[in-house]
Structure formats: structure tokens, C-alpha cells
Amino acid sequence: MWERVGPLREAAGLEDALRGISSIEEQARDLQICEIRRCNTEVADAVELPHMLATARAIALSALGRAESRGAHVRSDFPERDDTGPVKNMVARMRDGECTLRQLAIGE
Amino acid sequence: MSSRISIRRYDPETDSEPRWDDYNVPSNGRTTVLEALTYVYENLDPTLAFGSGCRFGSCGLCALELNGQPRMACSARVKDGMKIAPLAGMPVTRDLVIDREAFFDGLRALRIYIQEQGPSNTPQVLRVPKLHARLAACIECLACNSTCPSYDFGKDPLAGPYLLVKLAQLQLDPRNDIDRREQVRDLGLDQCTECRSCYCIRGLDIRRDVLGVLMDEGE
After folding, report:
1. How confident is the model at residue B218 (pLDDT cuts 50, 70, 90)?
2. Where are the beta strands (DSSP E) in chain B?
3. What is the pLDDT of residues A45-70, one digit of tens each?
4. In chain B, what residues touch A37 (CB-CB under 8 Å)?
5. Which of B87, B52, B57 is nearest to B69 (CA)?
6. Which of A6, A19, B186, B213 lies 20 to 30 angstroms, CA to CA, from A69?
7. A38 contacts in B (CB within 8 Å)?
């Protein structure tokens, strides 16, 4: 996320990041943590991991879907702001483990 | 480059007493103790427990003892042969994590906050003494309590220099309407011998700035 999905991003890097996220998701299916009961840092990390992965995927997908530069989202492959159509929000939705992206025109 | 560090490990549920575990961590002279602890957790030993929050010296959660001196793990640099232990005199939850829970109920009972005020009582502009701003540097890391020779967590977890700092802050606040000096006397904190042993990571002069506010006779 730090290297590929920072403020300056491009399609190839974002696709690479999404492959990386899928690979971590695959590994996260078989998670082992130590059995200590008190103050177990791994438990907190294990709880956070799926949420971080879902968030990471939504961010990378939205960045890939927005083929323009706008505010802090700077696409080196689309350096200009695209004001031809209506301004749109990216809406990411998680359903049955599948993250889908939809563009919603503001005011719609 | 790498540094060898010793970490004091203790799980009150399973261990009869603490032990020291040694680890080799990469370091480049700028590596912080918190980075070293994170390296141990991520690469060498996932059972290590330690606290941290902001990572830039503003939350106080990573305070511990480095070679016997209270420091913040996020701002201190790791050194070869360093001994890393939890703050002394505090109940250890596990390894480097201390139990802060006991403070909160006690603080609530002492009303360590500004009482809610009606709109008519709230001044338009708050004039706060400069000293108050200095005392506001306290980030509640509890290093002062852990270095106070009179402090005894088992007897009273609140009765230590940390609470004196809190009460002095409130005493200086123009909206405060509780006599904090009386609270100091009720808690027996006026028995402070002014030995200057309490150590403040943020450099507060507790004897000069805190006791001056709370112990002076009259206004």
C-alpha cells in the first residue's frame, strides 16, 4: 500500500497491489497465532487483518477506477483532471466476500 | 549493523518470576527502541507484548525502562547491550505492558476534570497562566510515579507525582472550582519530601512547578 497505492499511483502499480492483496488474503485463510491469553498482540492483529485487507482492496480498486487526477489522488498515467462528465463518487461495496465498485454521480 | 538487546519477559499467569530474553535486532544508529521491539514481534518472537500508540512521543503509552532509566521507546535509540524492562513499581500485565486500569476509577472519583459550566459562567477568552502550558506537556506516561521512592502501587495507585501534576494543572485552570490543594492534603500527598527523585520524560520540573502551585500557603 505504501509503495503502490500512495498519493501518486498508476494502473500497473495498482494492479500489482491488488494481486498482492489477493495473495495476502490467500495466506490469511490459514492463520496461526500463539496461545497466550493475556495481552496477546497477535489476537488484535488477527482481528484487524481481514478489515485491513478489505479496506486496502476498496482503496486500490477505487484508485484504479478513477482514470483522472483529482485532489490528493494523482494518477501518473492520467495527470489531468477530467471535468467533461458529472463529478462522481466511488462506492465500494463488499457482498459475499466480493468487493464491487460503482460510480455514483454527485447529486444522483 | 545489529544490536543485542535483553528484554524482561513475564506472564503473571504462567511464570513464577520474570526472565531476560536476548534478541539480535538490526540497527543503524537511528533505529528506535520501538522499531527494535516491533522487529522482534514481527520476525523473532510473536509472543512479545509491549505497548505503543502514536510513535512520535506524544501519547506516553510506550514508556519503559531502558538500562534502568525511564524513557519512551518511540524516541529513544536502541543501543547494543540495552536492557529493556517495564516501568518499575507498576503491576505488569505481561512483558513490557503495565496495567493502567487501576488509575481510571480513582481519577473519576477525584473529578480530575473541569466541571460542566453554564454558558454564563464560561469566559469568552480563557486566560491561562504560562505555567499551565508547561504542565500541559505531561503525557501521562507514569514515569514519575515509577521513580518516586514513596510511591506504592499496592497501597494507593493514585498517590504519586503523576496525580500532583494533574491537580496542579487543574488548580491553575481558571474554570476549576474544586480546591485541589485540599485533595492533595486528603490524599496525603502533602507529605512529599521534595527529594527530586521523580523523573519526567518530558522534562517537567515537578518540585518547582507542581509543588509550588499545590503546597504554597494562601493564594
Report:
1. very low
2. 2-9, 19-26, 63-66, 69-72, 82-85, 92-94, 97-98
3. 999 999 999 999 999 999 999 999 99
4. 13
5. B87
6. A19
7. 11-13, 49, 93-94
